[in-house]
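User: I'm writing a short methods note and want a consistent example. For Orotidine 5'-phosphate decarboxylase, I'll paste the sequence; you return only the structure tokens, no commentary, since I'll be parsing the reply automatically.
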Amino acid sequence: MTNQPKTFLALLEQRWQQGHFVCVGLDPEYERLPEVVKEGRTPEDALVFFACAIIDATADLVCAFKPNSAFYEAYGEVGMRALAQIVSYSKTNYPEVPIILDAKRGDNSNTNLGYVRSSFDLLQADAITVHPYLGKEALAPFLARADKGVIVLVKTSNSGSGEFQDLLVGEEREPLYLAVARNVARYWNNNGNCALVVGATYPAELQRVRMLVGDLPLLIPGIGAQGGDVAATVKAGQDSRGWGMIINSSRGIIYASKEADFAQAARSATSALRTEINSYRN
Ligand SMILES: O=C(O)c1cc(=O)[nH]c(=O)n1[C@@H]1O[C@H](COP(=O)(O)O)[C@@H](O)[C@H]1O
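Assistant:
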């Protein structure tokens, strides 16, 4: 029997089964790292040390880790090398925890082949966030990867997300974000590898998306630093099994303490969020 690596969805479901719904966002800014992390280390080593300490402290409590590429690209080669080391560390030591590369990609189809190669094959991420604007045809190289997750932006958490996402479209005169959610659920998910992004800052919209897409997994950022309400998020976001949620917090967890106890504080914050989420699940 061949030992095939598990798909993104299989990894996720295994984590949900164990009551893990928190996604820790690995979004470090060098300037904000605790002094104890920076002392005696190069910036590259400090970024790696910090993220790996957070990974070690929280891996048994989470459904996923989500490094956002921007926080690494910001430091050029140093940052990109750090990102590669962090993903490799997590996959080696905690292969049961999927890694979502938050890069919000989405270009023409032949260009997307480059992103598929860099994110899935070189970096070894289990899933990636993508923009839907160019349509299913353009995203085909991502969608073809049945082993990986394709997480499509639907209703984002930022205050200005309504500018386009809430525009009423089509014969139904429904918000654009619902049209995107419907198309992904009905027509893009032939390989069972799609998920959607809906911000925790929009619980009413989250509920509308959940009612439309059945048990499709939802990545839900906006808890913690952005002020999303955990109770409203879980009530609106859980699927028919009480699963279906990847609830992300980045700054609220990684900067829980600026002192030498930063990793322990990250663990406590993750654990508290995990408990709170589970207290609201059906
Ligand atoms: O795709 C995302 O993860 C994302 C979508 C969205 O609508 N809002 C949003 O904040 N995010 C990401 O989620 C993370 C949120 O970080 P915190 O606000 O620090 O918890 C960042 O990496 C954002 O880029």
